[in-house]
Automatic annotation (TrEMBL):
Source organism superkingdom: Eukaryota
Function of the protein: Subunit of clathrin-associated adaptor protein complex 1 that plays a role in protein sorting in the trans-Golgi network (TGN) and endosomes. The AP complexes mediate the recruitment of clathrin to membranes and the recognition of sorting signals within the cytosolic tails of transmembrane cargo molecules.
UniProt similarity note: Belongs to the adaptor complexes medium subunit family.
Membrane-topology annotation of the record: Peripheral membrane protein
GO biological process, one term: brain development
Annotated protein name in UniProt: MHD domain-containing protein
Amino acid sequence: MSASAIFILDLKGKVLISRNYMGNMDMNEIDHFMPIMLRMEEDADTSPLVTHGSSHFLWIKHRNLYLVAMTKKNANAALVYSFLYKIVEVFKEYFKELEEESIRDNFVTVYELMDEVMDFGFPQTTDSKILQEYITQQGHKLEVGAPRPPATVTNAVSWRSEGIKYRKNEVFMDVIESVNLLVSATGSVLRSEIVGSIKLKVVLSGMPELRLGLNDKVLFEITGREKSKTVELEDVKFHQCVRLSRFENDRTISFIPPDGESELMSYRLNTTVKPLIWIESVIEKFSHSRVEIKVKAKSQFKSRSTANNVAIMVPVPSDADSPKFKTSTGSCKYLPEKGVVQWNIKSFPGGKEYMMRAHFGLPSVESEELEGKRPITVDFEIPYFTVSGIQVRYLKIIEKSGYQALPWVRYITQSGGEWILSSHWNSIAVPLTPV
């Protein structure tokens, strides 16, 4: 990685905290960072990497802080940015929120953390759970004699402490998939994507080894089981605990897990997915008088599954008032600050269809504001269901003491941040008549 120094600056460019790891750079070079940033803002040409002479600044912004790595070498930029985001996570674990005030209030702890997370320009221990074992916010007593590094830091398994004991040994695994869809007003899917993650909550004694088996297409092809139902995972990212060489050789996911909660892996599937909750809508804007909204929602998954906490957000004109609603199920409310009607359905079984009607009055003088035709968005969560068909075939727990442990697996599908369904708009010019 070879980052020579790390700086934390306020929004004016004042250095709050700095650490010179390699001693091969003039620390005053950071004074050139903010003027360069201001010039870029004026030119509307922001770059995540800026240069002054032979000095390179790789930076990220978090709330009211800049975190800047400085180097003269041809560093691996991806690793530098990964490290900067990782130390943001570490600081948030310690201080709840990372901002200028938390840095000023905890500068001793911040310096101690920066000394531990990097050594001579190379990342070291960045697991907040391990760091919290020996860097606390209560301060430290000076030990007499040669300091001893914490045992966990020098272990081959640096993400898990030794000597962990529980009365009841369990593993809870959540397979969570988010569906991102972009659907046109005519009903054609313009873009679809599944983003998944496998999260763990580990309550296990000792140093157990876990082996996870999925219905992975590549694995099934290797073992001659092509006819079985499989999924082809893309962009797979693992926690550092997974033995990558083992996975690359025979697709076995083998690992010694961190204690407590962690994300074991994430993946993505570029596949055509039909909308799980299909929306048909007509928004009729009568000339200068009122707007009427008709929305039909249909669940397109099997009846044995149920979508929970469904929220359908339908945009309305910014000058609408006097809302009236009628629904076949659930409830509606007008959110003027967002300019939407929110239709809430607590439980939406598969194969069902529901209707909602909304009526708004409009001012007698038409606004000259040209409003874009904003999309309808849908939020939901479906437990015990994955849209990709991914399955946990087995989860084996091996520990030298031979204790019995219970594995629990749960599947959840939810709407992603970009589930978007466009609506049909009709503008109708009619005489002003009461509804």
